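Page header: ASSEMBLY MODEL / two components / 908 residues total.
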Amino acid sequence: MSNEERAPILLVPKRGSKDIPESYPRIEQTINPDSLPKSDFDAELKNIEGLDKITNPLDRPLPPEENLNLAPESGPLEPIPMTVEQSKPLDNPPVSPEESGLSVENNIPDTVESLDEQIKKEELLLEHDKSQKLTITAQGDEQKLKDLIARRDSLLVEQVPKEEPASKAQIHEEPTPATPESVVPVTPEVPPAAPEPAPTPIPETPAPIEIKTFAETLELQEQAFSARKDMLKFRANRKIADLNPEDLEKYKQFREVFQKKYEILKTERNKLPEEQQEDLGKLKKLQEVQERLVNMTPEQIAMDVLLISLREKKKQLRIIDLQIKDQNTDEDLKDFQKRRRGLLIQIASMEEELSGGRSLQDQINDLQGEKTGENTTEPKSETRQEIPAENIESDNEPNDDHHFERTHAESKGRTREELQSVINELSKRIDIKTQELGALPMHRAITRVGLHVEIEKLSRERAKLQAELNGEQRRMGYGERFKLTTQKAYRKIKEKIKGDGKGSTARFWGQRALGLLTFGGLDAYKANQFRKGTKSVAEQAGAYAGDIEQQQNFSSVEAAQIDAMEMGDTTGLDVSAVEKLSQEVTDRKIKDNDARINEIIISVISGLEEKLKKYKGDRGENVLTEEAKDKIAIDLQNRLNDMRYSTIGADAKAIKKMLRENLDPDWWHRYVWAGLELAGASTIVYLGGPLLASKFAAMKTGGVASKEVAQVALKDTVWAEAKRQLIAHGVTNPTSIQIQQVTTKFCADSGIQVMEGGKLLWAKTAGGKFVDTILAKGVAIKISGGLKLIAGMVP
Amino acid sequence: MTKDIEKLAVEIGELLAGSTLDKKTKDAILENLDTMPEDLVFKLLDALKNEKEQIDSVVFDMELFLKEQDERWAKLEEEQLKLASSIGDELFEKLKDHPVTSVDAPKDETPVQ
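Prediction written out in full:
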């Protein structure tokens, strides 16, 4: 197979292929970009070397011509099998969505109004991109803006001429003298419609759901965080009263840009696999995102290449579908259908590659293993330039006065981690040796002695390191004075808050709003009420995560989730609570206005009374009787009340929008509380202390499983779940025996029989109803008993 | 304790006071700060700062909403007053010449918002 015949999918080398390069970077070298035909797709492939070049043109909806007109220059499409040549230009570009009056993104017909709205949003984005010097993104946005304006203009033009033919017809007809023929109403002869050829059945290609690659989503995260930073920077150290109307307007624009970018990020991120979503969730600062962008792994890049290729294929498929509709001759039709089949095969193959089968990482590892003769760890990407740390604007930079202390502290933390890691490794080896020793017959005395010596040596080494770690731990912390100073500052602020009452009106209502997220007010947030956050913490805090759960008396993350669900909505804002707050905020104004209306009515009636004093009725009575006054008052009240409906409506709309934007649970769970949990809860757990001691004791005696019904949904196998729980609860390197003990307990408690080859494998699970080999993903496993066992295993 | 570490202690104390963490967690942190690993102290600081930034955002936007709400209602009151005055004037015109006429407020074209 020549290079020209090779389809883009083969860019990712297969295991065992003769073309396997020596290392990942060589993957690119196997393709000579110059030998490839020129097309947008090929141009993008050539840009693999710089990830930014891959992702930048794709971090926005493609402009129409990029999106559909893949090959505008020359030459018909080559017949299948799919070759690189296939992306050659077409003589007859397909009908673009614009021509068909459909929007590219959602196939909804454009209207002038919708386009106006899109233009306005695009202008905002463009302004932001320019201010951020995001040149490539800005170019894309500019192009999109031009397209939108062109589309709107053409729509406007289309709408105007529709009326013209009628008026023109009138003008032409008027001077025509009436003839008898012309007077006689004649039914216009409509030529019989030519029988249209029966439409060729076109197989429906569903509009592909475009999934951004990890790198693209990461860039979206960078853009969202950057927009947020702009917004915060703009209003930093400024109060509402300091801002003039123009500034406020500008602030709103910053906010809108951020909201828009964040919404895009959220939508795209939610389409990614869960692991990648978690991965992105760990990046809570702009700087972290930027650093991550320059440290993409080869696997991620290779996946991205594959995804981009897949997307291109799907676009080609859509083009062919459109072309098929236009074909009249059987020959052309056959040709296109043949190509279509070829594309479908390639798409299916790519999708299989992406969703299952051998992972690209495996393939890359194989390649690297073949080159070096061993399995190597992931190398850093060579396709992206490292950004020197000093060039990245740190989120903490402006406020971080503790640079030296921070660096020193982090270095100490790393030393402890490394020591702990070596100790764990030694423990693991000692366990293995001990097991070997136990299995060795007594008569093999020499081997046994040798093992004894090895175990002894390893134990001594471990003890030495443990002593070193203990020494490190003894020196941990900033000491008593630090604690006392913190406590003093804490109390001072608390007293100040108490003294100030509820503080400013805005702060009062702001806190009420936060209460919507914290189930009833400040100081009410409990670290384990949110699954997402807790999971993230569990991963980051490693061994401490299990204990974090104990701090809150939750026997499992799932139990915590159940608890949270009982309290309210864990996935979004409680709609009724938002409604209630919105009503409260407006009610106080309505009350004020009621009082004002009363004042106005009294003033009007008194004024009227005063002016009518000199006027009398026929019998000398006062014109303004009490009855008349009541009638006027009621009438006025109704009229003035009616006037405020729109204001009440505007209030409700504005407050709900504000709350939705500011209290987005996704944002708070991912970027605020997850970090807080890690920092707060894990530190307590790390240190011990009275609270922890009591909890820990409870755990050891079985308090851990206070919720006997604690269950988890099976993600893969019971074995894997047991291992995860062990690690999460502090057994960092569980042995096979430990895993088996916990697995057996899980199975026994959940009524699962562990079988092999149709025979019962683990006697303790004999009473089970279900067989482990047929357990489906999602089956609930009772874990409380197993957790009790784990508690006894925690070193 | 250096000046810088003292400053760090004050910063953490103040941030913790305004945090949404539950009281039990706050107390536990405050009780164990003396021996808390230094790197975790900084993690705590970052997380608290981040949280404060979010809370400030909510308060700022709430303040902006309240300001705009005040403006909206002030404008409404102005319009209500205007309408009431014009109704009063019309009633006067009507009643002074026709004292036996009904005292219903004139159904003018004043738009009802």
